[in-house]
Specification:
The chain is an all-alpha fold and 71 residues long. The protein has one domain. It contains 4 helices and no strands. It is elongated.
């Protein structure tokens, strides 16, 4: 169950950051479109390497939460 919660949190974060970058890129500065590119590259690399930096930052993800759920 913890992995499912973690996956949902990562997907929500990635989707929110992509939409935020898109909106800011359209209305504020085109440089914010780099945020969308960064999110996309991070999702692509994590699909190959199974390493996602967001998992270390989000609550409910990582080694600490899996150890707490097991015990």
């Amino acid at each position: 169950m913890a992995q499912t919660t973690c996956q949902l949190q990562v997907r929500r974060l990635a989707g929110s950051m992509a939409l935020l970058g898109l909106v800011l890129g359209v209305f504020v500065s085109r440089w914010f479109l780099l945020l969308v590119g960064f999110v996309g590259l991070n999702l692509l690399q994590s699909s190959f390497t199974d390493v996602c930096p967001a998992e270390a930052m989000l609550p409910g993800c990582g080694a600490d939460s899996t150890a707490a759920d097991a015990g």
